[in-house]
Design a protein that fits this description.
Chain lengths: ~300, ~400
């Protein structure tokens, strides 16, 4: 590396200083947490769809990207103000939901019985198509939206500056998780969905329209992707290519967490988010490797994922 | 058994077709064809599109008069920022499209690969966006030219400006690829030369286009350097400014980024862009307000409805370099084109720019400034601008020769 002029000495000194600094440690935990939440919201949607319908939806990342772009457009419509952001946060997942409803009724509905490989190929093609559609509709320029006024600025957390918006994310994440859990565990719709995931034919035999159950589950999963995109929008530049990065991470998280397991998705996201934050803290040059090393280790020990897969 | 009549008719028909094809091929005048390999998908696409806009704007003017009695045409190919795809596209352009000149790319990695390929094919290759100094430096050769500023020039400009400031402890961070390391390394070695007592406190390298830079920033601030050197390109320039703003980093830690004040990079941040960010750019549409710059900006705005970024500036200049070189060469012969291009001076929105003969590098000035949000514009502009001339910031021909012969 051309830039590595100082060599290892500086790095050792930095590590030493950093290790002694508990404040920075705490700050990194916080950073890891906020990163976790976006990953969790997106991968919970993916996990949900995978668990109920066995569809590995690679286009899930595209919906996340569309959620971000839609949030941008909606916020712009309302002048980019604070009110605009909240409306965008509410409407953007709805928009993605409608899009996914159309996709499900037109395409996915016919594919549930197909082979996994076919589904992967199909959704991969869909991802490419969506990517180009986004380029057509929104162009190639960078888009940026701002956090609402009350969530702007930063606070001092463990001696480091931390954006208020990221604290908001740390609050929202568990709320979504709890909401999803409540839905599947307590509501009638949720229980039927879980039943259909286990034994579709039996649920069909009882007289419940499994077709609509699957449709509903698919739309819910996709709404989560859109929500993730809308939430992440104020913190990153909204650009093409967002779909590729998130889908890889989401799939890894879902795999290590256990397919179809929402709590597993949460655990997986925590591991992913924290390992990256600590990677940056310990060895910034190789930080990008840490989460993947974690994934490899976990899969070696528990190939089916940490928690039970929904089978 | 075919009847003799049908055989005669068939032979006549074939003869006519063959004759027509013969005429068409010999009569066809080949226009000058330029093959462009660039990134038209993903986050970098917005920059490459602007370069193309600048290029097309210049071509409109050039083709009114024509070059060597013909118009200049071009075709584009998308390399998706990948080296293997870029190479495939370049091969197709050279072998199937039979281009006269190859132009590209956004990614320094792709540019390096295409440069080596162009050398084997004896095809002139003009680099208009990638900035790695190695392209015209140690890996330079007869068939590659750079119409954009390179990392060695930027590093020298930035280092001399930074040396004048009271910074002692430096942290270098950036995208983990050719451009990032080239600019970081060059800047550090220059800085050490002119100010030996500077100290490198640490380095961070993230994957290209990494959207979430807050973990890195948190740790960098904790290490307490005097200034952060951000070796970012493309999407990351935007991401780091957003992260700097949301953590309010610029209030306690100065930040230098190449290209931060470029219109396309900073416009999306609007009035929320961080202030006090140190930046270097080869071109600003609002400074200096020379007649050439104003004319270029007006023409660009009339054609496309928005002001030009420095990518558009490079695209515009590249077209003019190509046209003038062909005119001077008086022929489409590639070797004559190269000879004509060496040492050629053209008019650009920043004045006369020379394509230096010894290393095929355009001698471009670098503007060093600081971001500031002002009421007249709905985005942050660069103020306190200092222009460093190309001659001041380029490595000497001797240094280039030494680097290439190593």
């Amino acid at each position: 590396m051309n830039g590595n002029a100082a060599g290892c000495d500086e790095e050792d000194k930095t590590m030493e200083n950093a290790a002694l600094d508990l404040g920075t440690l705490g700050a990194n935990c916080f950073v890891g947490l906020s990163r976790t939440m976006i990953l969790f919201i997106v991968s919970s949607g993916l996990s949900f769809i995978l668990g109920v319908m066995r569809v590995p939806n690679i286009a899930h990342g595209s919906l996340y990207m569309i959620g971000a772009f839609a949030a941008y457009s909606i916020a712009e419509l309302f002048g980019g103000s604070t009110v605009g952001f909240w409306i965008a946060l509410a409407l953007s997942p709805v928009f993605v939901g409608v899009l996914s409803l159309i996709a499900e009724r037109v395409m996915f509905r016919r594919l549930y019985q197909r082979e996994h490989l076919e589904l992967i190929l199909f959704t991969f093609a869909l991802m490419l198509i969506f990517g180009d559609l986004v380029k057509l509709v929104w162009g190639t320029d960078y888009k940026s939206i701002l956090a609402p006024d009350m969530l702007r600025g930063s606070v001092i957390v463990f001696g480091s500056s931390f954006p208020v918006y990221n604290i908001f994310l740390i609050v929202v994440g568990p709320l979504v998780g709890v909401g999803l859990w409540l839905f599947t565990a307590t509501t009638k719709m949720g229980k039927i969905t879980r039943a259909a995931a286990v034994d579709r034919d039996m649920v069909d035999a009882i007289g419940i329209n499994v077709d609509w159950v699957f449709c509903g589950a698919f739309v819910i999963g996709c709404i989560l992707a859109g929500l993730g995109g809308a939430l992440v929008a104020p913190t990153v530049s909204i650009t093409l290519g967002m779909d590729h990065t998130i889908i890889m991470e989401a799939f890894l998280i879902v795999t290590i967490g256990g397919l179809g397991n929402i709590a597993g998705a949460f655990l997986g996201s925590l591991i992913f988010g924290f390992s990256q934050a600590f990677g940056v803290y310990l060895m910034p040059q190789f930080a990008i490797v840490f989460p993947y090393i974690a994934v490899v280790i976990i899969l070696l020990i528990k190939p089916k994922g940490l928690l039970k897969s929904a089978s | 058994m075919r009847s003799p009549g049908s055989v005669i008719r068939f032979s006549l028909f074939s003869a006519v077709v063959f004759f027509l094809l013969l005429i068409c091929n010999t009569r066809e005048a080949k226009a000058i064809k330029i093959g462009i390999v660039d990134t038209y998908s993903g986050p970098a696409a917005v920059f490459c599109k602007d370069a193309l806009k600048g290029f097309e704007l210049a071509l409109k003017e050039i083709n009114k008069e024509g070059v060597l009695g013909e118009k200049i045409e071009f075709v584009t190919r998308d390399d998706k920022f990948k080296v293997d795809l870029g190479l495939t596209m370049a091969k197709e352009l050279v072998m199937r499209e039979d281009v006269d000149v190859l132009v590209g790319t956004m990614s320094s990695g792709v540019a390096m690969a295409l440069s080596q390929y162009a050398k084997t094919q004896k095809m002139p290759f003009l680099v208009w966006l990638s900035k790695s100094g190695r392209i015209t430096g140690e890996k330079g050769h007869r068939y590659v030219f750079m119409t954009t500023e390179n990392t060695t020039m930027v590093a020298k400009a930035a280092a001399s400006a930074l040396a004048g400031k009271p910074f002692k402890k430096y942290w270098i961070a950036g995208d983990d690829y050719e451009f990032g390391h080239a600019i970081g390394g060059a800047l550090w070695s220059h800085l050490k030369k002119i100010k030996p007592d500077v100290e490198l406190v640490g380095e961070s390298w993230w994957k290209v286009g990494e959207p979430d830079l807050i973990p890195y920033i948190t740790n960098i601030i904790a290490a307490d350097p005097d200034v952060l050197i951000s070796c970012t390109g493309g999407a990351s320039m935007h991401n780091i400014m957003k992260a700097a703003k949301s953590t309010e980093m610029t209030k306690k830690l100065p930040l230098w980024i190449h290209g931060a004040t470029d219109y396309l990079v900073i416009k999306p941040l609007g009035k929320e862009a961080p202030e006090g960010v140190l930046s270097t750019v080869p071109y600003l549409y609002y400074y200096p307000e020379s007649p050439q710059n104003k004319a270029f900006v007006k023409a660009f705005e009339d054609a496309y409805g928005s002001p030009p970024s420095f990518m558009a500036f490079h695209g515009y200049n590249t077209a003019n370099f190509i046209a003038e070189a062909f005119r001077k060469a008086g022929s489409k012969d590639k070797e004559k084109f190269i000879d004509a291009l060496e040492g050629l001076q053209i008019e650009t929105p920043v004045g006369k720019v020379e394509m230096r003969a010894c290393d095929h590098q355009a001698v471009l000035p670098i503007i060093f400034g600081v971001t500031d949000v002002v009421p007249q514009y709905d985005f942050a502009i660069s103020i306190n601008n200092v222009i460093l001339s190309g001659d001041d910031v380029m490595p000497s021909c001797l240094e280039i020769e030494k680097a290439r012969n190593k």
